[in-house]
Design goal:
Length: about 120
């Protein structure tokens, strides 16, 4: 399995949740290795891309999904392939520290996050 880090926003996540699949828009980040440091670097790279999607204040959101191979990186990802979600705990102001960590959410918490 290949782990993908998909930058998004809460609005785009709402659309994906309703559709039952997540269509990557923009950069799809893949960790260089399966060690913790590589995965964290991939997460933060995707977080930076999420901040670019916001173009201002809001919550960075990164969807983490596992696909069979990298060929799946450009296609819609069924929500059953989502293994976790990372997001800012609260709206962050434009220009906030890009190195701030994101909170981890289990997939069953996504409806609460969107609510």
């Amino acid at each position: 399995m290949t782990r993908l880090y998909l930058p998004t926003t809460l609005d785009r996540l709402r659309v994906a949740w309703a559709a039952g699949s997540f269509a990557p828009q923009g950069d799809v980040v893949v960790a260089e290795g399966d060690d913790e440091d590589s995965e964290y670097a991939a997460l933060m790279t995707a977080a930076d891309a999420s901040a670019d999607l916001l173009a201002g204040a809001g919550r960075r959101v990164v969807v983490v999904a596992e696909v069979a191979d990298l060929e799946g990186a450009g296609r819609p990802v069924p929500l059953k392939r989502v293994v976790a979600l990372h997001a800012d705990p609260d709206d962050r102001p434009a220009g906030a520290d890009p190195d701030d960590d994101l909170a981890w959410y289990a997939t069953q918490e996504i409806p609460d996050l969107l609510g």
